[in-house]
């Protein structure tokens, strides 16, 4: 099987029972109660959809697209107030994005994403001493 070379954009929506994910261009849809389970269901559904083409998807090819409210609800470990101060944004403005009261511009979205990715990289590079 040939591994798909590009990322597959997946739209994710919060539902009353968890999450729904879909890739319209491939007619792939799945649901799950939690994000880790959603990844596994997506991997299975995408691989089934690509099986006849002799292609395969790995977790690295799946790119979830969540809105800010969903992101901060699931990844509660990221404190929006801390993030806002770190990226030089008004904490109350970021809070409005997180609650879905306002929607960020493309420039503001990029600033927030870069901040989250920067924190993620720092955390990935840390070694804890026992």
UniProtKB/TrEMBL annotation:
Start and end residues of each HTH cro/C1-type domain: 83-126
UniProt cross-references to InterPro entries, sorted A to Z: Cro/C1-type_HTH (IPR001387)
Protein name, entry field: Helix-turn-helix transcriptional regulator
The organism of origin for this protein: Aquirufa regiilacus
Lineage of the organism: Bacteria, Pseudomonadati, Bacteroidota, Cytophagia, Cytophagales
